Amino acid sequence: xxxxxxxxxxxxxxxxxxxxxxxxxxxxxxxxxxxxxxxxxxxxxxxxxxxxxxxxxxxxxxxxxxxxxxxxxxxxxxxxxxxxxxxxxxxxxxxxxxxxxxxxxxxxxxxxxxxxxxxxxxxxxxxxxxxxxxxxxxxxxxxxxxxxxxxxxxxxxxxxxxxxxxxxxxxxxxxxxxxxxxxxxxxxxxxxxxxxxxxxxxxxxxxxxxxxxxxxxxxxxxxxxxxxxxxxxxxxxxxxxxxxxxxxxxxxxxxxxxxxxxxxxxxxxxxxxxxxxxxxxxxxxxxxxxxxxxxxxxxxxxxxxxxxxxxxxxxxxxxxxxxxxxxxxxxxxxxxxxxxxxxxxxxxxxxxxxxxxxxxxxxxxxxxxxxxxxxxxxxxxx
Amino acid sequence: xxxxxxxxxxxxxxxxxxxxxxxxxxxxxxxxxxxxxxxxxxxxxxxxxxxxxxxxxxxxxxxxxxxxxxxxxxxxxxxxxxxxxxxxxxxxxxxxxxxxxxxxxxxxxxxxxxxxxxxxxxxxxxxxxxxxxxxxxxxxxxxxxxxxxxxxxxxxxxxxxxxxxxxxxxxxxxxxxxxxxxxxxxxxxxxxxxxxxxxxxxxxxxxxxxxxxxxxxxxxxxxxxxxxxxxxxxxxxxxxxxxxxxxxxxxxxxxxxxxxxxxxxxxxx
Lengths: 382, 269
Prior knowledge:
heterodimer; A: 382 residues; alpha/beta; Rossmann fold; 2 domains; 7-stranded mixed beta sheet; 5-stranded mixed beta sheet; 15 strands; globular; B: 269 residues; 8-stranded mixed beta sheet; 8 strands; 39% helix
């Protein structure tokens, strides 16, 4: 990294990254702890000829960005738990119609209005299964501002590559904390542009006919190709269909395009895993405390390591299985009553050795909280 | 006039509308208006929600976006603001536009964003089989009002006016010539335009309320409506007025946003 050094909130790091990735349109509704994203973009977007609009609610916000994506723009909205609940309808629509967009959920304590300014990581499964019906989803996260930047760019890239909504699952600690951010130079991180059709005017364009590599080139609304977009099951023309073959084929396509590319989507960091007997698995703000524990214990010669997940969905089962193969203890550190741990238990060969280290009282999980759990597991008492 | 077929996606047909449904008349009125205005097909985006009326978007050979129940105006706002040179037309049903979509409706009107909202008002949820809508009105029959409806209805024109729409009109499927004229003015109006079209649903509203066949329901539109400010209205205040209620120049949202961009760029635009 050789760019400009900043001291910013995580929410601002997300804004910088979105602009770096080519964001041109944002629609949103104020909600703590994500509001700074809207505030910064209201200021920044018109400076580059982009558009910002504050909508009447979160439902309208996600609908507006989907509309703007169809005219050929990179789009984003940001919210927190209660607003994310409202967005599920639009999220399902974007999945079904395969319209690229990025949705930021800066998590706070829930359910309901919950803890507006308290940290939590309780939306992991809302991100995965909040939408009705079978589907696949991409959800990314980060534990520090440099990674917020990288994961935000990755989110836009994945949205364009797979023509799908991508969720950035941040949390209150990351969103509001200030720390250093080195802004990368242009070109330092690869940016995936919209893939547009090469079909000429007057020749039939099939908006939902995948190329050989599985990708679906788009055509901007307002361009030469007039086609239909619908949330109903549809054929390659975008026309509604309840033909069993069409329905089966589309549903398989929507799921397979993501589940067949887990490796390309997956991002993670690992610390001291080579010989670790105790493997901590964490993500987002919790990974900061987990890393602190690992570094302290390594300094004392203990064989402890950390697997930090930066992509949660699709869940990297094979990766987790491989990294935990030699572990006697696997400890999932997260700020909820056990969400990612469910996937971890499915991934490893010894699920009975998987333990939860969590905190659910609206306070940030500390290294001491994790150490206490480790002492219990190791039979050393608290 | 060019063939209607050139504006239709035949692949989509036959359409889903029941015999006697008024929505086909709205479809023809809309196509006629666009043809007479000589608009370019690639410049038009039709955004609709969910319901019988909303299927209209798929039938026409423009850019078409068939969205979620009630959310058409929110999607349309994203389309329009991101590419203001497009002409955005948003046909909606009465339940779609004013029950589940009521909030989006008043806010789109308040912003005065340049698009044409067409409320195809048949006073009933047709697709789900005849439940009362916010435009059904007190005393009507519906499957969810077996003892008579106690919900009062919105007056779409008054609501749109109060919410800030800069063009507001009402017409019916009986008054096709007026429908075409009103739609032409609405589409060329710069700002948020609302056109309410009273449309008949003989299958559900008609049967539940003993209104007769489709032709009888159109007769009803003829006999129970009157031009705005007519002498007949003075005599019989129960008559429904048709015509243009509001047509005014007001700052339009996308144009105002262009000024924001100029300000933010500090003259670099």
